[in-house]
Design goal:
Distance between the termini: 41 Å
GO cellular component, one term: HslUV protease complex
Structural class: alpha/beta
Radius of gyration: 30 Å
Protein name: ATP-dependent protease ATPase subunit HslU
CATH class of the largest domain: Alpha Beta
Strand content: 5-15%
Number of domains: 3
Shape: globular
CATH topology of the largest domain: Rossmann fold
Number of helices: 20
Family: Belongs to the ClpX chaperone family. HslU subfamily.
InterPro entries: AAA+_ATPase, ATP-dep_Clp_protease_ClpX, ATPase_AAA_core, Clp_ATPase_C, HslU, P-loop_NTPase
Subunit structure: A double ring-shaped homohexamer of HslV is capped on each side by a ring-shaped HslU homohexamer. The assembly of the HslU/HslV complex is dependent on binding of ATP.
C-alpha cells in the first residue's frame, strides 16, 4: 500500500494487528502520521512552516509505547531509531551526546533506501552473480599467459619465436572456445539449480576492522569516517573462500547489487527521507528530570541533557558524515512512566515541543488474554511454530490461556507491574520442560490446559521469595 493512501483509520487498523487496546494512543499517532503525509502535498512556501506535532506518551512499562512507535514507522516505511534518554550525557561529559540519535537515524535511512534500491536491481544482480560463479567454475586463461618466460628463453638461444607465438594464439583461441561451450552448458545447469551443492572458490572483500574501536563514541565516529575515507582511496583487500554454490549466491548477491546502486542518489534520498519522514523515539524521558530520585546523575546535569535535546527537537542542522541534516521535520515521540515525576518537571521549553499528550492505560487481565492470542505475532503463535520445527505440536485450551493471563496479571499486582513483558516470563516457564525435551525420537502432541499451567507454576507462584527471582 502506498504511503499517500494511508488514512488515519487504516493506520489504526494496521496497528490493531499487533497492539491490543490503547485506542486513544493509536488514534493520535495515526493523525500525526497522516499530517506528515498531508504536509508533503503542500506547496513549498507553506510546507516549510508546517512542523510535526511531537508526541509525549505517558504510561507504565510494557503497555505498548515502544511497539506503537515502531509499528508506526514500519507502516510508513519510515526510518526509525530508539534511544533511552538516560544514555545521553550533557555536552562536555564522557558518553553519548544527543546528536548521536540524528546521525544514527540518517544511517538507518540510507540503509533503508539502499535495501530498496538493491531489491530493484535484484534480477540484474542475479545474472552478474551467475557470471562470477561461472568464472570460478571455468577460469578463463588470460591471453598470452605464461608465454613470455618461454619467449625470453628462446631469444637467449637465438631461436625464432614466430612459430611459438602462432602456436600460443591458436591454443588460446581453441581454449577460449572450449571455455565458452563449457560455460554455456554450466549456465543452463545453474539456472535449473542443478549445481547448488557443488563447492566453488570465490573472491570476496575482506572485512575491515573499525579504527579507534572501544575508545568512546566520538573516537569511534571519527574512526568510521577516516576508515571510509581511506578505504575509498586504497584498493580493496580480497580473500578467497570455499563454499557451496547455494551459499555463494547469498554472499555475492548483495555485493553485485550494491555495484548497480547509484551511491549519490542513495545518499541523497536517504538524507531526504530522514529529514522529512524520520521518527526518533526517546524512551525514559521522565528519568532526566531533576525531580526523579531514582535517576543517579553521577554529577551529570539531567537538565543539561534536556537543554541539549531542545535545539534538536526545535529544529537545527546536525553535521553527519553525509553532510548537514535538518531536524525541523523529524517526528519525535517521547515516552516515560512518570511514576516519581510528572511532565511538568521537564524544562518548559521542552514541554512545549511535545504538544500531543497520550496517556496509555494499564493492561487488564482481559487484555492479557487478547495479547496471548490475537496479534499477528502473538506469543502463543510464536511458541507453537517454534516447537513445530522439532516435531512437537502444542495446543492451548481456553482455560489454559485464561490461567496464563490470570497468573501474569496477579504477578504484576504482587511484584512489580512490567506489563505484557510478564507474559513472556510466564509462558517461558510453562513451556520450559517441553522445550528442553524436544526434539524427541517421535513426534507428539501436547495440550496446555489450566491443570498443566498450574502444575508448572504453582510452586513458584506460591513461594513469595522464589517468584520474585523466577517470574
Amino acid at each position: 500500500m502506498k504511503l499517500d493512501d494511508l488514512t488515519p483509520k487504516m493506520i489504526v487498523k494496521e496497528l490493531d494487528k499487533y497492539i491490543i487496546g490503547q485506542d486513544d494512543a493509536k488514534k493520535k499517532v495515526a493523525i500525526a502520521l497522516r499530517n506528515r503525509i498531508r504536509r508533503l502535498k503542500l506547496k513549498d512556501e507553506l510546507k516549510k512552516d508546517v512542523i510535526p506535532k511531537n508526541i509525549l506518551m505517558i504510561g507504565p512499562t510494557g503497555v505498548g509505547k515502544t511497539e506503537i512507535a515502531r509499528r508506526l514507522a514500519e507502516i510508513a516505511s519510515a526510518p526509525f531509531v530508539k534511544f533511552e534518554a538516560t544514555r545521553f550525557t550533557e555536552v562536555g561529559y564522557v558518553g553519548k551526546n544527543v546528536e548521536t540519535m540524528v546521525k544514527e537515524l540518517v544511517d538507518v535511512s540510507i540503509n533503508l533506501v539502499k535495501k530498496e534500491m538493491m531489491e530493484d536491481v535484484k534480477d540484474q544482480a542475479e545474472v552478474m552473480v551467475e557470471e562470477r560463479i561461472l568464472d570460478a567454475l571455468v577460469p578463463s586463461k588470460k591471453k598470452n599467459q605464461n608465454k613470455q618466460p618461454l619467449m625470453n628463453m628462446l631469444s637467449m638461444f637465438g631461436q625464432n619465436n614466430q612459430y611459438v607465438d602462432n602456436d600460443y594464439e591458436k591454443n588460446n583461441e581453441e581454449e577460449n572456445e572450449q571455455n565458452k561451450n563449457r560455460k554455456a552448458e554450466l549456465r543452463e545447469k545453474l539456472k535449473n539449480k542443478e549445481l547448488e551443492d557443488v563447492e566453488v572458490e570465490i573472491e570476496v572483500e575482506e572485512d575491515q576492522k573499525p579504527m579507534f574501536g572501544g575508545m568512546g563514541q566520538e573516537f569511534e565516529d571519527m574512526g568510521l569516517q577516516l576508515g571510509e575515507m581511506f578505504s575509498n582511496m586504497m584498493p580493496k583487500k580480497t580473500i578467497k573462500r570455499k563454499m557451496k554454490i547455494s551459499d555463494a549466491r547469498k554472499v555475492l548477491l548483495p555485493i553485485e547489487a550494491e555495484k548497480l546502486v547509484d551511491q549519490d542518489k542513495m545518499q541523497q534520498e536517504g538524507m531526504e527521507r530522514a529529514q522529512n519522514r524520520g521518527i526518533i523515539f526517546l524512551d525514559e524521558i521522565d528519568k532526566i528530570t531533576d525531580n526523579n530520585e531514582k535517576s543517579s546523575g553521577a554529577g551529570v546535569s539531567r537538565e543539561g541533557v534536556q537543554r541539549d535535546l531542545l535545539p534538536i527537537v526545535e529544529g537545527t542542522n546536525i553535521m553527519t558524515k553525509y553532510g548537514p541534516v535538518k531536524t525541523d521535520y523529524i517526528l519525535f515521540i517521547a515516552a516515560g512512566a512518570f511514576h516519581t515525576s510528572k511532565p511538568s518537571d521537564l524544562i518548559p521549553e521542552l514541554q512545549g515541543r511535545f504538544p500531543v499528550r497520550v496517556e496509555l492505560n494499564d493492561l487488564t487481565e482481559e487484555d492479557f488474554k487478547s495479547i496471548l492470542t490475537k496479534p499477528q505475532n502473538a506469543i502463543i503463535k510464536q511458541y507453537i511454530e517454534l516447537l513445530k520445527t522439532d516435531g512437537v505440536t502444542i495446543e492451548f485450551s481456553e482455560d489454559g490461556i485464561n490461567s496464563l493471563a490470570h497468573i501474569a496479571f496477579e504477578l504484576n499486582e504482587k511484584i512489580e507491574n512490567i506489563g505484557a513483558r510478564r507474559l513472556y516470563t510466564v509462558v517461558e516457564r510453562v513451556l520450559e520442560e517441553v522445550s528442553y525435551e524436544a526434539p524427541s525420537s517421535t513426534e507428539y502432541s501436547l495440550n496446555i490446559d489450566s491443570k498443566y499451567v498450574k502444575n508448572r507454576l504453582d510452586d513458584v507462584v506460591g513461594d513469595e521469595n522464589l517468584r520474585e527471582y523466577v517470574l
